[in-house]
Amino acid sequence: MGASTRTVPLAGFTLAVGSAASFALSGVFASALIAAGWSAGAAAAARIVCAAIVLAPPTAVLMRGRWPLLRRAWRAVVLFGVLAVAGCQLAYFLAIAYIPPSIALLIEFMGPVLLMLWLWGRTRIPPGAVTLAGAALAVAGLATVSLGGGEGADALHPLGVAFALVAAIGNAAYYAAGATSDHGIAPLPFVGLGLAVAAILLAIACASGALPFAVSAAPVRIAGAELPAVVAVAGMVLVSTVIA
To answer: Which helix (H) or strand (E) covers residue 33, if one does?
Structure first.
């Protein structure tokens, strides 16, 4: 029996990197809106509600004749919408009100490490050496950036770190939910349905006053340029949510 060869899923890897890069821009857009007078809740609600509207038509088309699948998948959809979308994004936007977006994003992207530790504890099966080395490298990188001096060392506000850690838990839930396909719903409509759940939740929270909602017509500054707030919202919705 010949030795097995290990292939690199180049397409999947490229899509994953592109998704991470697109999502990372959300901190730039959201922090610009918050600096212009938007509340974190308003920025999160605008992002999720508008993204849900954009994805509603393709979701409806792809779910045609397959709506009965939702009876089996509703728990996964609700969990995805509440924890991985609404909770994760709101916590991240709250975090960047206290700490730089770069550090908040690094902490949030510890989600895969948390997921690895959770699976390790649940199954009692230790990860492989390469996985452990990658997790250690990620933690070391976070520590280097956060505690190595300069802006990172001066900007570790406890509330910002706490909110970023909550976002990391939501990020772990995002990957865990995305890896589950036994419900039979295709990825795009699954995301669309999850965004709809999150949009309803955030809309209720904002309308009831449970989540502070404040918007401003003031222009935002991105990369030194002054732009209308709608440009930041569009980038946050289309680039950092729908494409990501």
So the answer is: helix 10-35
